[in-house]
Every structure is written in structure tokens, then in C-alpha cells.
Amino acid sequence: xxxxxxxxxxxxxxxxxxxxxxxxxxxxxxxxxxxxxxxxxxxxxxxxxxxxxxxxxxxxxxxxxxxxxxxxxxxxxxxxxxxxxxxxxxxxxxxxxxxxxxxxxxxxxxxxxxxxxxxxxxxxxxxxxxxxxxxxxxxxxxxxxxxxxxxxxxxxxxxxxxxxxxxxxxxxxxxxxxxxxxxxxxxxxxxxxxxxxxxxxxxxxxxxxxxxxxxxxxxxxxxxxxxxxxxxxxxxxxxxxxxxxxxxxxxxxxxxxxxxxxxxxxxxxxxxxxxxxxxxxxxxxxxxxxxxxxxxxxxxxxxxxxxxxxxxxxxxxxxxxxxxxxxxxxxxxxxxxxxxxxxxxxxxxxxxxxxxxxxxxxxxxxxxxxxxxxxxxxxxxxxxxxxxx
Length: 389
Description:
Blueprint: H1 10-14, H2 38-51, E1 61-66, H3 72-88, E2 91-96, H4 101-114, E3 118-121, H5 126-139, E4 142-146, E5 154-157, H6 160-179, H7 181-185, E6 188-193, H8 199-215, E7 224-228, H9 233-243, E8 253-257, H10 260-272, E9 279-285, H11 289-294, E10 298-303, H12 309-321, E11 329-331, E12 335-338, H13 363-374
Parallel strand pairs: 1-2, 1-3, 3-4, 4-5, 5-11, 6-7, 6-8, 8-9, 9-10
Antiparallel strand pairs: 10-12
Helix pairs in contact: 2-12, 3-12, 4-5, 6-8, 8-13, 9-10
């Protein structure tokens, strides 16, 4: 697999500020995403034990609260965390948050009662983040939060503004090539949001809309149709079915969403309505690889490589326990995964032979978008999650 798939955007975020030396092969500013050797992970454990001995006196216990274990993206994240924990000789305790804030709170309390040494939190409800972190802080447990920030926890995950802008602009350019500029500018853009997760993931879906509009400036804003996907294929399918009543027959439907699963829900609803000839979607995550390979209208996905999350998250946990200096946010370096290049990232898949889209990322429009985000009062406390470029 190519190098630098999961390289952090930390150097951009930190403006050149150094955060300690390399920690047994892990440096968030240069890390390429590959799993570190077991000897390196065990050396991390040994160093950490010099600073913070395991609470049980024997071995570290890391709690991982997964977003929902049967979602493909989340399953891949869990597999990566487990592989790294096993290699490091660390015990992993897994809980399922079931996309529910109250359940996440119960799981957090269970981790505290279990007396774990560190927690990796993947939970969707921003309203519960403060309460969970208050309890973790009282128990003296450090936390890293995946994709949805929690106050006081280190953040690891999607570069929401850039990933969203990439997906939206790619969709616009691909649709224009396939359907023609006139049909695209008179078409409909369907966006699957996730409001319960707060303003940070909203930068992803907002970036998708902004990226699309930057590539099609004459597009009618009233033709942007948004819905709450609730992070699932099923809800996205249901909501898109309802929205199709507002879209005239023959109009081009272009869709994207918070993740690959919700994007797939959009596609399935349009296909069921018999409108497959006039639909195109772009996903986010690139974890629905079979869908990307087999569905002609699912033309691309913004790759986040969840199978490699654990390669960074376990070293982050051990570096934190070792009191090694780390940034407060590490963002994924995304790439566009298409039918034409997916074999470069996933060895079990072949690359399609047809010509690839010549995609151009609209850098100037993206810079203007970032400026607007920095002026957004709802984001004043999370400026570290807005990249500099």
C-alpha cells in the first residue's frame, strides 16, 4: 500500500511547533499509517509503565467504546485497535455505543468501574460528551475521541472541512462529465447530514455542499435538499424516498452524505424509484468497497482508511500514558478512492480499466471556505480542528 495514507495533518495545524521526539516510531506529524512492529509497541508499553504503572499492577487495560460495532467503518476501526493492542500486550475491553448518547454514558461509567487505564471513545451524541469527560476527568482517565470531539479529550479523525470539500467538488465534476453542465446546474443535490453529532461533523457535510457549489457556481441553492441521515443506510434510504417527491422526473440527482453507508442509502432509494439513469453519488470513508466496485453510479469515495486508525490510536494511548508530548488534534490525510485506483489501496480489488476523471481540487475556493469557518461563532472553541489549508 502507498505510504502516507494516514499521515497526520498536524504539521499544518501546529504551525511548525514541535511536540516531543519520535516515540518508538510514532510521530503524529510524519506517521504514514502503517502498523508499527510489535517490538516498538512493547517498547512504548515499557516506557509508559515507568511513568504510569497499570492500575491492576500487571498490564494496561484500554477501553474502546465503538460507535456501533456492526457498521463496516466501525468494525474496521475496532479490528485495527485490537490488532495493535494484542501486539503491544495490552488488554482491550470493547463496548458498543449503539449510536446513542445515553448508552455511551453507561459504557463510560462501566469503564470507570472496570478501572481501565485509558479510553478510546467513538460516540455520536455531542450533548453527552461533556458529561462523559467530566466523569473521566474525575476518575483520572485520559481519553482520545474519534471523529466527534469531546471537551478535554485529544481528537483523532477526519479532516472534516477538506474531506467534505473534496467529495462535493469531485461529485460536481464527475456529474458534469457524465450528464453535461446544463443537466447538472438544473439538477438536485441531496445531502445526508448528522446534526446530533454537533458542529465538527457538520463541517464535513457543510464542506460537501460548499465543494459542490464551488464547482457549479450557477447551481440553484433551493435545489440543495438536506436530511438527517442518523448515520445509517436505512434512515438515509427512508429520507431520500420522501425527498424524491420534490424532484421532477428526469432531473439529475447527485448525492453524498456523512459516510459511505448513508450515501448508499441515497443511491438505493433513487434506484428503487426507477431513476437509476439519472443518479450519481460520492461517499465518504471508502469502507463500502464492494459498493464502490459494483455500483456504476457510486463513482468515488473520500478515503479515510478506518482499518488503519488503530495503528495511530494505540500508540497515542501509550504515548499519553508515557506522558510523551502530543498535539491536541491529529487529522487524517484523505485521498479520493475511485474504481480506477482502488487496487492501489486495497490489494483484494482490481482497478477498473475505463478512463479516470481528471479531478481538480478547487484550492482557492477551499481557502475561502476555511476563512468562513474561522469566522463561524459556533466553531470558536475548536479552531484547532480547522486546517490552515
